[in-house]
Amino acid sequence: MATDTAGAAADAFEEQRPLLTGVAYRMLGRAADAEDVVQEAWLRWARTDRETVREPRPYLVRVTTRLALDRLRQIGSRRETYVGPWLPEPIATDYAGTVPDAAERVALSDSVSLAVLVVLESLSPLERAVFVLREAFGFPYAEIAGILERAEPAVRQLAGRARRHVAERRPRFAVDPTERRDLTERFLAAAGGGDLDGLLALLAPDARLVGDSGGKAKAPLRVLETADKVGRFLAAVAVKPLFEGEFRIREINGAPAVLVLSGGKPDSVLSLDVTEDGRIGCVYIIRNPDKLALLAP
Fold first, then answer.
1. What are the angstrom distances between the C-alpha of 103 and each of 99, 100, 109, 113, 179?
2. What is the C-alpha end-to-end distance of the chain, expressed in Å?
3. Are 281 and 118 in contact (CB under 8 A)?
4. CB 231 within 8 A of CB 203
5. Exposure string (b/e) for 12-30, b if CB count within 10 Å is 16 or more?
6. What is the pLDDT of residue 242?
7. CA–centroid distance for 95 within its chain
8. What does each C-alpha distance from 165 to 88, 169, 183, 256, 262 come to in angstroms?
9. Alpha helices in the chain (DSSP H)
10. Sign of the C-alpha dihedral, residues 51, 55, 60, 62?
11. Which conformational region is residue 55 in: left (phi greater than 0), alpha (psi within -120 to 50 degrees), or beta?
């Protein structure tokens, strides 16, 4: 009987693991931290008197969210001493192949995009939790209030503030996946060939480039701004190679991105944020090796 009970507990947890991992990753921006949180949630679940738990899903989401909030507060100081700009850890996704519903696919892709995760970094921990639970996973306000042990009106206020903050810094608009991939391929061809004119044709006038190396690889330590500076940097990189190796286009954080492999191992990720008129608004370059291990072929 004990084995059956333990097995049932494990099955119930595994059924919710994708949801719990999704919540933790969006809150923390790093897969390793998300895995730690989910593992701690499992340990607590294993010790819980499950006869007192009516539904595993809300209980486990509550535990995971609170653990993620604790972790978010702990790692805040760590990011203050980070060398250069900090970007979320990129993760491989396959929404195009595994999520048949187009509206759900768009919502998931947007909520896990690097651009949105960067904006979420500027929210308070509670605002971030509410935004993730509401906008990414559609939890009712009443359920979020229970998870966070806050009154529902307060949760609605947090949600409104978070939504406005994100909208101000990253307006939402639909970008056709085929057009996004085409833009990524054209960007790769221009950047790889050092074609400055080609790059300038693709970049929005106020384009930015954000590089994340953590001081462990070559990348700009400051954000580059304007199409001219971004284009010239990328063209110079092609002439004096910063990215040497094999280039692949993969779905990363819900959108096509360039994965650079060196010796068969991930070396860099280049991800594009696309503007409403179909141009490149921001180029994200992630080269910190600690953030690329999960992308190994």
1. 9, 9, 10, 15, 17
2. 42
3. no
4. yes
5. bbeebeeebbbbbbbbbbb
6. 59
7. 14
8. 18, 6, 28, 26, 38
9. 2-28, 31-47, 56-80, 95-98, 102-111, 114-120, 125-131, 141-148, 152-169, 177-192, 196-202, 227-239
10. negative
11. beta
> pLDDT band at 239, cuts 50/70/90?
low
Q: Which residue has the tokens 């085409």?
A: 182
Separation CA 142–CA 144 (nearest Å) = 5
Cα separation, 226 vs 283, whole angstroms: 11
Cβ-contact 85, 28 below 8 angstroms: no
Radius of gyration of the chain (CA): 20
Sorted by sequence, the CB contacts under 8 Å of residue 166 that are 6+ apart come out as 116, 119, 120, 123, 131
Residues 101-119: b if buried by 16+ CB within 10 A, e if exposed: eeeebbbbbbbbbbbbbbb
Q: How many degrees, rounded to 5, is the angle at CA 132 between CA 64 and CA 164?
A: 150
- Residue-wise pLDDT for 138-174, tens only, equals 999 999 999 999 999 999 999 999 999 999 888 677 7
The per-residue pLDDT for range 202-236, each reduced to its tens digit, is 999 999 999 999 999 999 999 999 999 999 999 98
Residue 54 in tokens: 């009516």
Sheet of 255-262, strand order = 224-225, 203-212, 280-286, 265-274, 255-262, 246-252
The two tokens of residue 278 are: 């179909």
Amino acid letter for position 72: L
Written as six digits, the tokens of 8 are: 């049932």
